[in-house]
Specification:
The complex is a heterodimer of chains A (about 350) and B (about 325). In chain A, about 35% of the residues lie in helices and about 20% in strands. The model of chain A has no long low-confidence stretch (mean pLDDT about 90). Chain A has 14 helices and eleven strands. Chain B is built from eight helices and 14 strands. Chain B is globular. The chains are: A alpha/beta (about 350), B alpha+beta (about 325).
Chain lengths: ~350, ~325
Amino acid sequence: MKYVDEFNDRKIVGKIASEISALKVSANIMEVCGTHTSSIFRHGIRDLLPSGVRLLTGPGCPVCVTSQSDIDSMIGLCEIEDAVIATFGDMMRVPGSSGSLAAKRAEGAQVRPVYSPTDALEIAVRERDRKVIFLGVGFETTAPAVAATIIAAGEKGLNNFWVYSAHKIMPPAIRAILSADEIRIDGLMLPGHVSTILGPKPYEFINVPSVIAGFEPMDIMLSIHMLLKQIKTGEKPRVGNEYGRAVRPGGNEKAKKVMNEVFETGDAEWRGFGLIPGSGLDIKKKYGRFDAKKAFGAVAVAGGAGKTACICGQILRGLKTPKDCSLFGSACTPDKPVGPCMVSSEGACSTYYKYGAR
Amino acid sequence: MSDRITMAHGGGGGLTRSLVKDIIVSSLGNSALNRLDDSAVLRSSSGKLAYTTDSYVVKPLFFSGGDIGKLAVCGTVNDLAVNGARPLYLSLGLIIEEGFPVSDLKRIVNSIRAAGAEARVKVVCGDTKVVERGSADGIFINTSGIGEIPSGKAVSGSGARPGDAVIINGTLGDHGIAVLSKRNGLEFDTTLRSDCAPLNGLIGRMRGVHCMRDLTRGGLAAALREIAASSKVSIGIDESSVPVREAVRAACEMLGLDPLYVANEGKLVAFAGEKEAGRILNAMRKHKYGRRARIIGRVLRRGRGDVILNTSIGGRRMIEDYSGEQLPRIC
């Protein structure tokens, strides 16, 4: 596989950088997706941009935007007798109001990191005497695979498998950020992976220039160039697509169909935003027997720690950077995270910390 | 410290370091242990000795390019060799789970013998314990090793000097990805083999290095951070000169890992003055474990221990301490 190299070419990236400088545009660009933030820091892309181009981090880290009440409920699930909590690794160390899934595991709870929902299903098939609960966290990229797993659980007739759905969809959050109007956003770098499922159409409401971007350095530089050109001409904003090699005009019809078969949109609480109408994915009645929220009700652990000085919420809205946080790098580090943005590999705080942006 | 051991305490990052320092060294510390080099250098009446120990809990036990037995020899031999010692003797401690197949145990002992023969070390003492089913995961191995330091010249992790070239002996991440590809729940096809190998033969040809470490858990990043901190220097690395196989790079992209942080079991980083570096590199390339040796960066200046990466697209960033639990039990 050589696909990465051609998008990492120093000469080409340097050429795009000088074209960006030549545009002489000052702009605030928000990268919605945490994977973009991570790639920007990993490759030192901010070094290559003129000082007038400011990159803001956005809400596109699924672990980070999961609400505290959802996290507490997930930790609470560990109390159920014979439960196996199957989760993506990133969720393990997210602090709840008291404790975390990792702390529960150290106390003896069956919390098992998995790499895909199918792994969780296999545990349920293998260990029929246990109640296997998969923690469904993620955006449009993850939801289709979880939906397919729920359908498979139905076909296998499993009665020991559930999903706690904290899935969210991206367009309503983008709408919420733009309509809140708390910070000037001149352009949006749209999430590449999510867009492979959605295609460009659901973003057409966006009233500033926007570009769907891939994740290699050249993708990011090209999409910044496309955004700045749109911003400079001042024409009617449109959705550009830099990631054409993966994002088709209609998105992925098959994935959308599976997702719509199992999930329906509902209101969801986002960390930092509060309730965003129609932004969550709930399990439809037809598949209600796999819905952990219905099966186990409210099992949230009692809140303990209460409020901290953590500003994850404001970082997710692009209002602050990790460097503005009094806890960053001292009271809050990847070893003892206070907020989810320091835990997830897609979180802005963990990215700033890992790549030494102090 | 949290009040219970979590998997992240074994990850090789900050939590591991605080466990070692706050619980073990704070209680058992002495001048040999406090250096926290890969092996302790001891005085005997006839000169200097190096002494080290390591435990092996890799899962799965057998992987492409090696197994837990080969690992248990190579890991300990390499810890001695990077300190400038000639490895001589190993101890072998086996903790075996009830029900473990004897055929697997024989296979493991055979590869201990083969690796020992290649490294020219002898297993001179040992211990075997069997625990109830469920109290261990197949087999755990501990080896300790003793080596002698010829002419008393130990190499430390704290000897890097400004102007030194940073040399590695080959591609990064082969072991970590080869093991991960065989793990339950994460099986993917790769022709990749672990780089697990005894490096004492190679190191024997590398005369004149100032500083050396082997690259195990935490990968090149962890080794460089430790060297920069203990040598009190800043180090600059050129990303485009760091050799990584395509298969490793593709797997890392897929899994969201950074090859700089992925484990190796047959790789080292060495520091040498500009003048000696060319000669050392030539000598390394003539050895089978050093064919792809190359210079990947320089020691920039005295400093507070920054490791700076010049990215392959022309940007810059810091290499920071790896944190927490990567994917468990790769060594």
